[in-house]
Design a protein that fits this description.
By secondary structure, the chain is of the alpha/beta class. The protein has nine helices and nine strands.
Length: 246
């Protein structure tokens, strides 16, 4: 199975080369698409060098400025699907998502449509160095979103996911409007409405090694509101179920 990894980057110069080597050390047929938003630290240039040294395996999409995670993924999905990816991975470039887990995810995607790397199933966890407030925030955000939307998943905000090609092709991706964290919830909700088979596999979420976290109360408050809009916006698909697939 040809698996394409879409990894959005914003200031990941230290991480990206290490990530690419770790990925290519895996016994999987992988390609990597880096979607860089003109990172001030030169990640885009490093990505170009990686593309040159790994022809046909590393690809780069340059965008003019910081346009957000959601649109980076949507543009990336479009490109890898056009290029024939059979399965598509969403993954952070900062090593919060352990490349090794892809082996298990690749095995599981053979019998479902979406594999979610979950911090909140048995065997999963978040970085022990996360302060209590951040742990609680993440746990609460998940509880809030999954309860409000009736999502039968434990981790709805995780950014480590593997999609089967057909599932992505059959989702009305043009309807997705959220950015940031809610983008991840929105995609999971859309997949659930359309009755795709979703499984969660445990991950240990490691905090970023380099760079600064941007988590803030403002981000969280906006997200909490936006969840209601997601539920309301897809009420037609919730009713239609599989019939809502495109
Ligand atoms: N292209 C692009 N990538 C982004 C943008 N924002 C974040 N990213 C990347 O998306 C991934 C996840 O973002 P992070 O900043 O690590 O988010 P996080 O893990 O919730 O927060 P941290 O604590 O900062 O690690 C990383 O690979 C980032 O470099 C953006 O606006 N555009
Ligand atoms: Mg991170």
């Amino acid at each position: 199975m040809q698996i394409s990894i879409v990894t959005p980057t914003y200031n990941e110069a230290e991480n990206l080369p290490k990530l690419v080597s770790a990925l290519f050390a895996l016994p999987l047929d992988l390609r990597v698409l880096v979607v860089d938003d003109n990172s001030p630290d030169g990640t885009g240039k490093i990505a170009d060098e990686l593309a040159k040294t790994n022809p046909g395996r590393v690809f780069v999409m340059h965008r003019p400025g910081k346009l957000g995670l959601g649109s980076a993924y949507l543009q990336g999905f479009k490109k890898v699907l056009e290029d024939g990816a059979q399965a598509v991975v969403q993954m952070d470039a900062d090593f919060s998502h352990d490349p090794q887990v892809l082996l298990e995810m690749a095995k599981r995607i053979e019998t479902c449509d979406l594999v979610i790397g979950s911090r909140y199933v048995e065997g999963g966890s978040v970085d022990g160095r996360w302060p209590l407030w951040r742990k609680s925030l993440s746990a609460f955000a998940n509880f809030y979103a999954r309860t409000l939307l009736g999502l039968p998943l434990r981790d709805v905000t995780t950014g480590y996911r593997l999609w089967r090609r057909e599932a992505l092709m059959q989702m009305p991706l043009e309807r997705i409007k959220s950015g940031g964290y809610v983008f991840l919830v929105e995609m999971a909700y859309l997949a659930h409405c359309l009755e795709f088979r979703i499984v969660e596999t445990p991950i240990y979420f490691l905090d970023r090694r380099w760079g600064r976290s941007k988590m803030s109360f403002k981000i969280q408050a906006e997200a909490a509101l936006r969840i209601w809009q997601v539920g309301w916006g897809y009420r037609d698909l919730r009713k239609k179920g599989r019939a809502g697939r495109v």
